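Weekly modeling sync, notes
Attendees: S.R. (lead), two postdocs, one rotation student

Agenda item 3: backlog of single-chain predictions. S.R. asked that every request posted to the team notebook include the full sequence so nobody has to chase files. The rotation student volunteered to paste the first one in as an example of the format we agreed on. Action items at the bottom.

Example entry:
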Amino acid sequence: MPSNTDRWTWYGLLVLFALPPMCLVLSRLSLRGFAMSMGGDPVTPLTAIAFFLLTTLAGWAGVLFGLALAVALWFDSRRLVGTDCDWRPTPLYALAGVVHAAGTMLFVPFVVSVPAVGYYLVRRRRVLSAG
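Predicted structure, as returned to the notebook:
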């Protein structure tokens, strides 16, 4: 039976895993809103500035959440190596977190990082709930 710490760690990793793609979507939608506000429709300059700020903040937030995921994966994999569970994850899973952070700018790295981090999360959940 996993402890509460293991359960909360898994949920924290799951949130950090989900936030960068959501920030990417928010950034792209606000970029579209910014481009539309610059079109022929009369809008206030405040609307254009708000869309620009939202685009910038969402983009950088996605990068920061991705890097936080990399750090969390590194610490979590190091902690799991010291336990008596059957699975010994390598700290190299943290590289998937770095690739996940790059995905917020390029989108293509998500093709690599989503399956890798998803595998880590599913495997971690199965091993710790069985043990």
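Discussion: group reviewed the output briefly. The chain has a mean pLDDT of 88.
Action items: rotation student to repeat for the remaining queue; S.R. to check formatting next week.
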